[in-house]
Design a protein that fits this description.
Elements lengths: L15 E2 L8 E3 L5 E3 L12 E2 L13 H11 L8 E3 L2 H4 L3 E6 L9 H10 L3 H6 L1 E4 L3 H13 L3 E5 L5 H9 L3 E4 L4 H15 L2 E2 L6 H17 L5 E5 L4 H13 L4 E7 L4 H8 L22 H7 L5 E5 L1 H15 L9 H7 L10 E6 L6 H14 L3 E9 L4 H11 L3 E8 L8 E9 L3 H14 L3 E3 L9
Length: 468
């Protein structure tokens, strides 16, 4: 695979229309879907606008020199985030370090690539401004550094983007357009707007300068921690792992590069199976920052030769990892940032037990409502949040007896509901309870007492994180 340097490429190119290819029965659109193409252009159909830096037929592979150039350019504009030994090292037989990128000003690693891409624009492009599509973190990084550098920024964010992230972009004086059901549609809208208004489009995960900027994290990790056995990187569009892998494999060739995706958006895993980026229909996920329907062409081509393993984790493990990071590390992180720890907790990295592993905590921009849901799902996953149905007497004190029993066990009732209409025995009532316990052992004690006290008790599914 030929390596081409993007340092000599122009910073960004005005968008161009895709030419219509005569006598072609099928073409592939920007999402990897195949569609029938007319042999002659229709006057009523606008040509698709494409990003010249993201070409499936000619992917650009960044080099170590590109990453070091980015590090020099952005060194005064972004934080040198700490990479510290984790408390989890005492709980898991693994020497774990956390690279805390959520401590950047906008709460995400995305600042690095955004600043570098903006600095590499021509004077004319800086005057005209830039546009991009983003779920939030890239939009914030671009908006903030565009504001600081005096470059006009427009961001297109899909309808499912976090309200908090949308408002933050507006606080950074960006022109925010909320359109599109997902990232794919938001990107098409942004490309069209950029073409019509003469704005420079900057892809948040596949632009070579974006990937080079993200790679500066890898340089810092190797400086901050010695003898690293593996680095675990969250994967969405692939720009982060492309940059980090480029840096680390050049400085520490024996260090393993591990990617982690959510089961709801396994775009890179599908790309590996397909031997190239392919469109994947994403579902709603706790790790919304990873919900990219198609891996970038440049990111894929750069990463594949350097990648040692790609992992897909269940949503419950991500929720539990968010909870663990709050309780053990006092860190509030988003789902994408917790993906690495989720992979360890789920047992996907047992080959690194007793070894030194760095987890890239890539972001901390989690919506407050989502944060509460994640904590509850995490508690349910490890058996601390219990749900059961029990039939009790409908006479005076029947429900009170149940509540007193739970209180005597030290169990906290979170929600309780009575059901009379659909129970056959008119002298009894069905009570549905959601309660919180100290841990799984406490939950088992509660279950045992309830089964001994009541003849009809139904407990719901076993906690996902409990192996018995």
């Amino acid at each position: 695979m030929q390596v081409s340097s993007v340092a000599t490429q122009m910073a960004s190119v005005k968008l161009t229309a895709r030419p219509v290819v005569a006598d072609q029965a099928q073409v592939q659109n920007g999402h990897g879907e195949t569609a029938t193409a007319a042999t002659t252009p229709s006057p009523d159909v606008e040509p698709e606008i494409v990003d010249p830096f993201c070409n499936a037929d000619n992917p650009q592979i960044i080099t170590f020199q590109d990453v070091t150039s980015a590090a020099f350019k952005i060194r005064k504009g972004v934080e040198l985030t700490p990479c510290v030994k984790s408390h989890f090292s005492d709980l898991i037989d693994m020497d774990i370090y956390l690279k805390k990128e959520f401590l950047q000003f906008t709460g995400s690693f995305k600042e690095r690539g955004a600043r570098y891409a903006l600095l590499m624009l021509s004077d004319e492009q800086k005057r005209t401004g830039v546009i991009s599509a983003s779920l939030g973190n890239h939009a914030q990084g671009l908006s903030y550094h565009g504001w600081k550098l005096g470059i006009p920024v427009t961001v297109v964010m899909p309808l499912k983007a976090s309200l908090m992230k949308i408002q933050k972009c507006r606080n950074y004086h960006a022109n925010v357009v909320v359109q599109g059901v997902d990232m794919g549609e938001a990107k098409r809208i942004a490309l069209k707007m950029g073409h019509d208004r003469g704005l420079t489009y900057i892809n948040g995960y596949d632009h070579p300068h974006i990937m080079s900027g993200q790679g500066t994290i890898g340089l810092e990790i190797v400086e901050q921690v010695s003898d690293i056995d593996a680095v675990v990187v969250p994967v969405g569009g692939g720009g982060l792992i492309a940059g980090v892998a480029t840096a680390i494999k050049n400085l520490s060739p024996n260090t393993k590069i591990i990617g982690v995706e959510s089961e709801k958006c396994p775009s890179f895993t599908r790309a590996l199976e397909n031997k190239g980026p392919i469109f994947v229909a994403n579902q709603a996920t706790l790790a919304d920052g990873l919900a990219v329907p198609q891996v970038g062409y440049n990111a894929y081509a750069t990463t594949v030769p350097l990648l040692d393993k790609m992992i897909v984790v269940k949503e419950e493990w991500i929720a539990l990892a968010i909870l663990r990071l709050v309780e053990q590390e006092k860190c509030v992180v988003e789902g994408a940032g917790a993906a690495g720890l989720a992979a360890i907790m789920a047992g996907h990295l047992d080959e690194f037990l007793g070894k030194r592993v760095v987890l890239l905590i890539c972001g901390g921009n989690i919506d407050t409502t989502m944060f509460g849901k994640c904590l509850e799902r995490g508690m349910a996953a490890e058996g601390r949040l219990q749900r059961f149905t029990v039939t009790v007497s409908d006479g005076p004190g029947g429900v009170a007896k149940l509540c007193n029993l739970l209180a005597s066990l030290g169990v906290s009732i979170k929600d309780i509901m009575h059901e009379r209409a659909f129970i056959r025995d008119i002298h009894h009532v069905e009570v549905k309870v959601i309660c919180e316990t100290r841990d799984w052992e406490h939950s088992k004690e509660m279950r045992k007492v309830l089964q001994e006290t009541y003849s009809k008790v139904h407990f719901y599914d076993m906690p996902m994180a409990i192996a018995e």
